[in-house]
Amino acid sequence: DQQVKQNSPSLSVQEGRISILNCDYTNSMFDYFLWYKKYPAEGPTFLISISSIKDKNEDGRFTVFLNKSAKHLSLHIVPSQPGDSAVYFCAASATGSARQLTFGSGTQLTVLP
Amino acid sequence: DAGITQSPRHKVTETGTPVTLRCHQTENHRYMYWYRQDPGHGLRLIHYSYGVKDTDKGEVSDGYSVSRSKTEDFLLTLESATSSQTSVYFCAISENLAGGNTGELFFGEGSRLTVL
Question: Among A23, A53, A77, B83, which residue's CB has the most CB atoms within a 10 Å radius?
Answer without folding.
Answer: A23
